Structures are given as C-alpha cells and as structure tokens.
C-alpha cells in the first residue's frame, strides 16, 4: 500500500491491521476545512479519481448528479496500485495539471512534509494550489451543497436515522468487505464476514417493504454509499475478499435496488467494472500473487455479460 513519511515515499506490501488481525483503514488527513473552502467556479477545481475505488465512485456519481462537470474537472489514476502507490501511466490515466508520475506527488505539493497514506479521491483547488479535501464523505456533502439537482441530504426529521444508517453501512459494508478481505486471522475474518451479512440482511429487509430507496422515496447519500459496494460485490468481493455467503444477484431486494440505481446515467456511466476487476485482482499481490483477473462472472446489470 505504501505511505509518505515527512514527504518521502516508502513502499509497503501489506495493509495495516491491528493486533487481532483486523484491517484498519487510515483516517483521511485533508478533511473539509473552513480555511480551504470548495468554490464551485468553472475551471477552478480538479478531482483526481480511480475508476476502481468505491470511495472515488461516490464522488463521481454526485459530481454528475449535481451538474458540477463544468465546475470540477476530473482525471484518473491507473487501476493497478503497486510500487509507488496510485500512479499515472497513459492518456486515459494522467495528471493534466502537473504531469505527475504518482499521486503521492500531489500530497507533497500540498504539504512537503506530509506523513501518512496516499489515497484518492483528491479534490484540488487550482487557484489556491492545494488539496481541498481527500475524504469522500466530505466531498459528497460539499458537492451536494454547491450543485443543482436533487438534494441528497434528507429532511431534518430523517437526518439522525440517515446518518446512523450511513455509519453502519460504512463500518460493516463499505469497509466491511475490506476487513474481511484483508483480515490476517480466522477470527478477524469471521467477525467481519458476520457483520457484513447481518447488515446486508437488514438492508434487504428494509427494501422489501416497498421502499425504492433506503430512506423511502427520496434518493439520499446512503443509497450512493451502498451502491458503490453492491456494484462491485459479485464481480470482486464475493471471490477476492471471500465474502461468499451469497451473491447480490441471489438477493432480490438488493439486486432490485442495484438495478434501479443502475438505470440512472450518473450511476451507470461512472461504473467501470473492467478497471474495478483489474485493480483488485492485479494490485493485491498478497491475495492474488499472479495477478490473474477472472474471466467472469456474468452480471445481470450487464445483460448477462462479464465485465
């Protein structure tokens, strides 16, 4: 995974875990800050993303839903993340601002003595010459407040329920698949596996009562947060991360939810399942040493074709 220490890059082959073998996701450092606001002026902002990354995918969906394409330019890192971390490799995966070779160079531009992990998304302000934010949930909220189109925050009466659900989805589903996949003990894996499917069962039950979305008729943040994991689940997490109790296609309520969102252009057009598979199977050498990418599975959202 690798990290920067006082501005110097160090490669590291493993993902961080605690003493019990549970994967520990590092906190984002460049959180939303009043002194570095998001200003939605055309041409001012640039969003660095990975098609493969679910956290990036959240922001890409909201950028399109909220009509911010002119206010926020976008470019992508290569799907393979090995030595040097996220990198820029070709015309489709480039840094148009600084022609960087690696994403970590953006972090040291913003802070030459930065210490920590280097993650995407990265929201860069060209005028200020720095990172505005690298936390996807913050970026989603910033885009929602600045853009047009549907408001993704629920009404105040539903905010507490919504945010508790968002936290549960993050802890046991979005991050839960990683905690299962990167666990280094049987118990850590089993604990994360159980929590993941307990939540998926609860979400399926929630959707079985006729709700088109998790909060009812309204499309909200939690729908986007869940979608980015569900759309990767059968293609990657089921096998690669050993989250194999059942596929999403085996759960009618969850599959129906996935298909309803897939029908919206902002969700479908920002999903690149080929790069998603290449990233996970090609980057995680500790889990898949030979980097072989599966030929399947056939997915209903792709009309029965493989990615």
Give a nutshell description of this structure:
With 307 residues, the protein is α+β, with helices and mostly antiparallel strands. Helix content is 40%, strand content 8%.
Describe this structure in words.
It is a single chain. The chain is α+β, with helices and mostly antiparallel strands. It is built from ten helices and six strands. The strands form two sheets. A four-stranded mixed beta sheet has the order 4-3-5-6, sandwiched between helices. A two-stranded antiparallel sheet has the order 1-2. α4 (156-174) runs antiparallel to α6, α4 packs parallel to α7 and α7 (221-240) crosses α8 (252-262). The longest helix has 22 residues, at 186-207. It is globular and about 50 Å long.
- Strand arrangement in the largest pleated sheet: 4-3-5-6
> How helix-rich are the residues, as a percent range?
40-55%
Helix-strand sequence:
EEEHEHEEHHHHHHHH
- Global Rg: 19 Å
The fraction of residues assigned to DSSP E strands is 5-15%
Enumerate the spans where pLDDT stays under 50 for 5 or more consecutive residues.
none
Mean pLDDT: 93
- Total beta-strand segments: 6
- Report how far apart the termini are: 25 Å
* Global morphology: globular
* Structural class computed from helices and strand pairing: alpha+beta
* Largest sheet report: 4 strands, mixed
Question: How many helix segments?
Answer: 10
